[in-house]
Amino acid sequence: MSKSLSLLFAVVSIVLLLATAFSLSNNGWLALLFATLSLCMTGFGFVVKAKLRKKNSKNP
Q: What's 60's DSSP letter?
């Protein structure tokens, strides 16, 4: 995975986790939504990384 793509996933995940932390005091459902989105974003980052690694290993 390229460094810029890794940075994008990291920044978006951190922003979602910060949104979760700030929304905990206001709205529990909104905090749950942000927590779910952050987990999905992190998981999607791992999926993209695995697919790119598999693609690069097939083309030597």
A: -
The rounded distance, in Å, linking the Cα atoms of 60 and 46 is 22
Question: What does each of the 60 residues of the chain score in pLDDT, given as a tens digit?
Answer: 789 999 999 999 999 999 999 999 999 999 999 999 999 999 999 999 999 999 888 765
Question: What phi and psi values does residue 55 have, to the nearest 5 degrees?
Answer: -65, -45
Residue 45 lies in domain: 3-58
Q: Check if the beta carbon of residue 6 is closer than 8 Å to that of residue 52.
A: no
Q: How many domains does the chain have?
A: 1
Q: DSSP string covering 21-57, please?
A: HHHTTT-HHHHHHHHHHHHHHHHHHHHHHHHHHHHHH
Q: Is the overall model pTM greater than 0.85, yes or no? A: no
